[in-house]
Each structure stands twice: as C-alpha cells, then as structure tokens.
C-alpha cells in the first residue's frame, strides 16, 4: 500500500501547491507552477512504479496538474492567459533539454561521483522531452480550445456563463488526455518497453488521468471562489482584471 499512499499524497501535494501558488501570487503563481510541473514531470516520467494494480510512469500525477493550471486560467483569467501557460511549459522543456544535454558534454573530474548518475538519467531525456513536448503542445492547446468551446455552448444554451463548470473542466480534460496519453507514450516508449508493457502503461496512464481530472474539479471550483472573493495574489497585491 506504500505506493498507493504516496500517489494519493502526491496528488494532494501538487494540486494543493497549485491552489496555494494561485492564492499567494495570482496568475503569476500559476505560471510559476507551470514551470515547476514541466521540470518535475519530465524527470519523474523516467520512473516506473506499481500502484493500484497497474504499472505506471511516475510523472502522470504531476503532469495532470498542468491541466488543472490551464483550466483555472481559462476559467478565471481568460483564454489568452491559458495559452501563455502552455507556451511557457514548452519553453521550459526546451531550455531544460538544452541544459541537460550541455551537462553531458563536460569531462568530469577524477573526484566526480555524480556524472555517471546524471548521464544515466539525462541521456534518455531528448526522446522523453520530444514525446512530452509533442503530447503537451497538442493536448494542452486542444484542452484550452475545447474548454472555451464548452463554455460558449453552455453559455448560449442556458444564458449563464457560471453554470456547468464541471462539464467544461472534465469535458475538455478527459478528451485531451486521451490525445496526450497516446502521443506521449508511443513516442517515448515504443521500442523501449515491450508491447504488453506499453499498452499497460498507456491504459494505466489514462485511468490515472481520469481520476486526477475528476479530483481537480473541486480545485477549479475553489480557485473560482478565491478569485471572486478577491483572495488571490495576496503577496503580490494582484487586482482583479
């Protein structure tokens, strides 16, 4: 049960961190969390663990937080802010790729002990980052677009742009996560894992994304209440737009 408890704790930690960053720093805090989740997820994805009867990559929960971030931005700050977060995540991944590959060129000192471990981790980074970038750009852009299409549809149909937050949140994330899961895992792990393991990883990843997508809905509602109550950006004194 250790892995299961750790995965639950990881979900609470990363979602709680997103909400805390929004409360303390407003929109800027969510941009900062975009950078943090991009870096963490690209490292965590190297780890394969068993949990809830499934074999899964560890970065799933952290990566799911990026969809929570764009949904909060879409709901409270507008489509342009959500798109900015997406491109910020892309920029972060590209810079991370450049630096991690640059490190591998250095000739280590005879007293160095870290280089073999750094090489073991980041020598696989280019392929994983390519997979991450491909899945991230396609799925996140689609998520932001679909979020606002759901919003436009429900607003026109019912004349109220506050209703059906749960629909635009889950309707956009669950569909876009299918795209992300398939694109990322095929590019990242095809030929690395056997077909059975690859299918297992894809299915388990999406099952996890289903649960994290459902769990992030209360977080989006809470973020909207914080925004409407003027309780965001406490440390930056960010004013409502």
Mean pLDDT: 87
Helix content: over 70%
Record field, number of beta strands: 2
CATH topology: Arp2/3 complex 21 kDa subunit ARPC3
CATH class: Mainly Alpha
Helix run count = 8
Note the main sheet.
Answer: 2 strands, antiparallel
- Architecture (CATH level 2) name: Orthogonal Bundle
Order of strands across the main sheet: 1-2
Q: Write down the domain tally.
A: 1
**Global morphology:** globular
Sequence of secondary-structure elements? HHEEHHHHHH
Global structural class: mainly alpha
Cα separation of the termini? 45 Å
Overall radius of gyration: 19 Å
Low-confidence segments, given as residue ranges, are none
Strand content: under 5%
Task: Write a brief caption for the model.
The chain is mainly α. The chain is built from eight helices and two strands; from the N terminus they run ααββαααααα.
Question: How are the SSEs placed, and which strands pair?
Answer:
Blueprint: H1 2-25, H2 27-44, E1 48-51, E2 54-57, H3 60-76, H4 79-103, H5 115-122, H6 125-158, H7 165-189, H8 195-228
Antiparallel strand pairs: 1-2
What does this structure look like?
Helices cover 77% and strands 3% of the residues. The protein is mainly α and 241 residues long. The chain has one domain (2-105, 112-228): Arp2/3 complex 21 kDa subunit ARPC3 (Orthogonal Bundle), CATH 1.10.1760. Strands 1-2 form a two-stranded antiparallel ribbon. Helix 1 (2-25) runs antiparallel to helix 2, helix 2 runs antiparallel to helix 3 and helix 3 packs antiparallel against helix 4. The N and C termini lie far apart (45 Å).
């Amino acid at each position: 049960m250790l892995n299961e408890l750790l995965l639950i704790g990881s979900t609470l930690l990363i979602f709680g961190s997103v909400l805390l960053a929004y409360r303390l720093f407003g929109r800027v805090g969510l941009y900062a969390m975009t950078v943090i989740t991009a870096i963490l997820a690209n490292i965590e994805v190297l780890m394969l663990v068993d949990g809830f009867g499934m074999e899964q990559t560890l970065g799933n929960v952290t990566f799911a937080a990026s969809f929570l971030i764009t949904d909060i931005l879409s709901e409270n700050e507008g489509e342009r802010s959500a798109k900015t977060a997406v491109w910020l995540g892309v920029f972060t991944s590209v810079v991370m790729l450049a630096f991690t590959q640059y490190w591998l060129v250095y000739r280590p000192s005879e007293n160095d002990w870290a280089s073999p471990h750094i090489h073991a981790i980041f020598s696989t980074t280019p392929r994983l980052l390519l997979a991450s970038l491909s899945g991230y750009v396609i799925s996140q852009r689609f998520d932001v677009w679909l979020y606002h299409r759901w919003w436009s549809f429900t607003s026109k149909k019912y004349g109220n742009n506050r209703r059906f937050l749960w629909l635009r949140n889950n309707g956009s994330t669950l569909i876009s996560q299918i795209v992300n899961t398939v694109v990322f895992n095929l590019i990242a792990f095809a030929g690395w894992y056997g077909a059975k393991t690859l299918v297992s990883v894809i299915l388990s990843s999406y099952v996890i994304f289903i649960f994290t997508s459902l769990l992030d809905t209360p977080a989006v509602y809470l973020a909207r209440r914080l925004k409407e109550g003027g309780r965001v950006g406490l440390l930056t004194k960010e004013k409502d737009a």
